[in-house]
Each structure stands twice: as C-alpha cells, then as structure tokens.
Design a protein that fits this description.
2 copies of one chain form a homodimer.
Chain A: H1 4-11, H2 15-23, H3 30-43, H4 49-56, E1 61-66, H5 75-90, E2 94-99, E3 112-116, E4 130-133, E5 146-149, H6 151-163, E6 169-174, H7 180-193, E7 200-205, H8 212-226, E8 231-236, H9 237-249, E9 259-264, E10 278-281, H10 284-299, E11 307-310, E12 313-315
Parallel strand pairs in A: 1-2, 1-3, 3-4, 4-5, 5-11, 6-7, 6-8, 8-9, 9-10
Antiparallel strand pairs in A: 10-12
Helix pairs in contact in A: 1-2, 1-3, 5-10, 6-7, 8-9
Chain A binds a DNA duplex through residues 1, 3-5, 13-20, 23, 25-29, 32, 47-48, 50-57.
Chain lengths: 321, 321
DNA sequence: CTGTTAGCGCTTTCAG
DNA sequence: CTGAAAGCGCTAACAG
C-alpha cells in the first residue's frame, strides 16, 4: 500500500505538503503541486480513508435506519433510498444501512443519520445530526428536522374531491395506526367530512396481521355486508388489488359501482390494473432528494428549515368516475 | 469523548490491558477484567471505530454494489438486500451501499464486496474478497465465487411441465439479454424444447425501452397477430400484468385460452391477480443469506464452495391449467 | 499476567 | 510558501 510518505519522497517534499496539495488547505506553488500530483499518479496513491477519518473526525458516512415492522425495507423506502443514494454519491457521502435496534450502530461514528417512518410514540435521543422522513412524534417535533408529504392537506383535498360523487358510503383503509402519517391522513379525511351527512363513513387502520391485499379484501367484504360503499380509498395499490379481486368476484363494477383510489403506488403498475388504478404520487424521489440535501447541509452547519413538505399529486385514472 | 486512556486511568491499569480485556486477546485476571469493565461502563466508553480500524486494517464493512440499469435497486435486489442486512447485522458487519461507477468506491476500504446482477461482458478486477449474486460472465467464472439460482434447470423443468398442455404455441419473455441469467434461462428453455414439433415457439428478451408491463403487452399483441399462443412464460409479475390486461381486453380466458406463469414475483401479490398468478419462487431470502454467509467466511479465510445454487420452487396457481 | 512502546496513515499547528 | 513534529485512539509485539 502506498502512503503519503511514499508520495512525499518521490516528489521530494514533506508529507504535510502532499496533504495540503490534496486537500487544498494551503497555498502551494504550481510547480510543487504538479510534482506531487505526478508522483501520486505514478504510485497510484489513494489516501487511507480510515487514517484520514481518525485525524479529521469526519467520516462522510450517513447512516440510514431501516425501521419497518419486518425490520426490512419496503417499496416506498426503497424508492426514497434510491434517491438518497444518488444525492449522497454526488455530494461525496457514503450511505450505511443500519437495521434498527442493532447495538452495532453505536460503534460506527456516522456524520449524520436518516430516520424513516416515525411512530407515534417515538422518543429517542440521537447524537449525530439527523433528519426524519415523515413527521416525528409530538414528543420530539419541537427540535427535530424532517421532510414529509403534506399528508393532512392531501387527504383533505382528495376526500373532498371524491365526495362530490359519493352517493351511499365512503371507506378509507388507512396505514397502520402507530404511524404518524396515519394520524395526519385521518385528520385530513375527517376534516373533509365535516358537515357531510347522509352517507356512511368508514375508517380503519391496517393491522399488520395479514397481507395488505388480503386485509383490504376482508375489510371491504365485511363492510359491504352491512352497508353500501361506492367509494374507497386504500393506503396502497397492493390493498387495491384486494379491492379489485373482491369487486370482480362480486360483479361490482369499478368505477361505476365502486370508485377506487390508492394513496401510494408500490407496484409501479397502476396503469396495468383493469381498469387503470388512480393513485396519489408521493414523489418519493423528491422526498429522498430533500432528505439527503438537507441532512448534508445540517452536517455542514448550514441552516435549513425545520420541516419541508413535499407536495403530492393525485393521478386520476379509470378507477374513478 | 472518552478514550481507552481514560478507562485505563480509572481502572488503574495500562491501556493495553484495557484493549486486551475488550478484545479477549490475552488472558486477564477476573479481578482486572471486572475493574476495567466497570470503569468503561462508568465512563460510557465506546471504542473509537476509526482508530481501531486504522490499527487493525479491518473495517468490518461490506460493500454492496447496486448495479442496475437505473443505478437504483429493484424489488428483487431489495429482497436480497434485506436478507443480507440481517445476516451482516448478526455477524457484526456493516453494509455500505455503493452505487456502481462512483469513484468514491475506491476510497472506502471495505473488507468485502457483494456484486449483483452480473452482465454477460463483465470483466472487472476487484481487490477485496467478493462474491457475485448470479453467475458471473464466462470471463471471470474460473476464479469467482458466486451464489445463484439454478436457472437453467429451473427453466427446463418449468418448460417441460408446461409443454404437456401446449396445443398451439408457447412464448417466453425473458429478462434483458445482457444478463447472464437470461442466457441460462434461455438454455433451459431450449433444452426442454428439443425434439418438440408442431407448436410455435417464441423467445424474446426484454429491451428496457419501456415499462415491463407495457413490453409484455406489446409483445403478446404482436405475436398474437400472426400466430396462436396458448402458454406464456414471463420474467416477472409486472410483465404478467401486461399479459392479463391484453387477455381481458381481447376476451382471452386465463388459463383456458392462455396459461400464464411469471418467473419472479416482485409485487408480492400473485395471490391477488385474477385468476391468481402462478410464479416461481426465487427464494431471495435464501440467496441473500447464502451470499452474506459465504462472503463473511471468505473474509475470515474460511473455505467456501466456488458456487452455490439455490433451488427455486414453482408455485402453481389458477393461471395454469 | 501486565505494562511500555512503537506504530497504523493522515492532519495540523508552529517554526523557519 | 514549506517542513518538522505532535497528535488522532487503538493494537500488538516485546519486556518484565
């Protein structure tokens, strides 16, 4: 392994000069600079990452906590991570995957941390600069930085839009109740339903005991036994598959008998549902970009806003009337 | 930050003793051990990861190259990575995401590297111990370690099984032609078709110009214009969605008019296709486990087999006759 | 069985 | 503008 000393020797300068040339940390004559660079190239010198980190106390590593019920990442996270990875790579940061609840995490001194999918009761204290994807729990929202979708607004807008066409009943199958996003969306849903009468309203949270499609299928079936529902909002397109299946089996026409919209599109194939599935574009790529950009600013002591809200857009397809 | 010196001082021993206690690298009396541990606890001492790495030249970091057309991970990779992450975490290794073609990769000295989705022409030389997910290209297969599905066998078995019921024609929409997996599967497909006459046979590779569902839809449509196909194998369930859409639009009954099977299940919802979609379980979790376990053995200089083949299982559902 | 000490490769004052 | 030297925190011979 070639070290900074080898380069210094070959270039006929001291190692501190080599260091300065590489880090642009002091003015150096062009001639010396060239000699150093030439020597480095000849020896194929790469600075030792760990030595550098030890000396500077800066790792340029960003950790990302994969926090999901299964401990593994889901499609939404996957999309966001892809975008984060791109930004990190562009800005010279490494991305380290950290399964939650591994005490190994304490040993790896990261420069910053990304936390995903905050729960209602989250209350952790973290040393490194960090940022949440999603609204953190009330306990920590004062001080925390986060990037989130405008869930409450989106849901209110979406519900209002649908209400125009609701004759009998509307149903909302929300994400799991312990997610802050579930809370925000429920608020928006209810806000839109204020002062609305003469239709039945259902709200239920996903309970994680079974597959999402199966859950939606079962919920819809149960609800249909006692009431008439002509509009359903589900958390994602996997749930929508359960709804479509139920509809097909029971000669319920989508959208004339039942309008369907999914909030998040994890399958990336809403176009290929029959009829094509309406959904809300959560702009995962933009979320990821904002998260990474903001965290890096934070690490570099630049000011950032406490929260940044990424807008969504409703994509109307054939599953809505 | 509390260092090894602080602990040594408080425990009244030398720092090397502290180091030995922590690393179990020399026998230490119980009494001393306790004193050291107590002191460490009191000071909330955590060894400095970078200093340790610099001294030992072992980072315990495993890199994983996300190599896909988009530079980002797909669902298959996501599943495998989840499993890798679990194993790494259990064995005390960190997982670093490395977008391919980032020259940053050269600077981070990893202990080992995982390479995904080998291409036909791959020919890279890598310093660190490394292992491929999927068969590497012929150029490097002599020396490379890899874990793969038994693609050729699986495909031959699958095709033979289907052939019993094929009356008119069979079509196979394979993955992109530059993947070694595409090659292996094509071989299996053709092997099964040896000595078979009187039916038309189609093989086409995904070309990445459009969405997979749209691709399958278009291919099927084109083929159906000039011939009759009653059995189709597609690379994944997203493609299957295109097939289902085409079938629905053209009053083609699945499975009686057209039997459908998908190789990989990225949507995790084959059950909720109507009719339920048959597919091949690639055992992504097992793949990930094998990859991680083997790479860690390699890093630790334990012998491993050059290749390990993970079997698949065909899941027959209603989309097959 | 424990302590001393010389590195690991790089950064960063501080003199020159 | 350049170089000498003192760390960063830890490990691992080597003496004792």
């Amino acid at each position: 392994m070639t070290t900074i000393n080898d380069v210094a020797k070959l270039a006929g300068v001291s190692k501190s000069t080599v260091s300065h040339v590489f880090n642009n940390t002091k003015f150096t004559s062009d001639e010396i600079k060239e000699r150093v660079l030439a020597a480095a190239k000849e020896l194929n010198y790469k600075s030792n990452y760990y030595a550098k980190t030890l000396a500077t106390n800066q790792s340029r590593v960003i950790g990302i906590q994969i926090d999901s019920p299964t401990g593994s990442m889901d499609t939404f996270q996957k999309k966001v991570i892809n975008s984060i990875l791109r930004v990190c790579s562009e800005k010279g940061y490494y991305l380290l995957l950290m399964p939650i609840a591994s005490e190994m995490n304490d040993y790896f001194p990261i420069d910053g941390l990304i936390l995903m999918n905050p729960k209602i009761n989250d209350t952790k204290s973290i040393r490194a600069p960090h940022i949440w994807l999603g609204r953190p729990s009330k306990n920590m929202i004062e001080t925390a930085y986060y990037v989130d979708n405008d869930n409450r607004n989106m849901m209110q807008k979406l519900t209002s839009m649908l209400l125009d066409k609701v004759k009998s009943g509307i149903s909302f199958i929300n994400t799991a109740a312990d997610m802050t996003a579930a809370n925000d969306r429920q608020m928006g849903f209810q806000a839109a339903l204020q002062d609305v009468a003469n239709i039945t309203v259902n709200h239920v949270n996903y309970d994680r005991t079974i597959n999402r499609a199966a859950f939606a299928y079962d919920v819809l079936k149960t609800q249909m036994q006692t009431q008439t529902i002509d509009t359903i909002i589900v958390d994602d397109d996997v749930m929508a598959q359960g709804v479509y299946k139920y509809a097909l089996e029971n000669q319920i026409n989508i959208p004339s008998d039942l309008a369907v919209i999914a909030i998040s599109e994890s399958l990336e194939s809403s176009e290929y549902f029959t009829p094509s599935l309406s959904c809300v574009d959560l702009n995962e790529a933009t979320l990821g970009e904002a998260i990474a950009t903001n965290l890096i600013k934070l690490i570099q002591d630049q000011a950032i806003a406490n929260k940044e809200l990424i807008t969504t857009n409703i994509k109307i397809k054939d599953s809505l009337r």
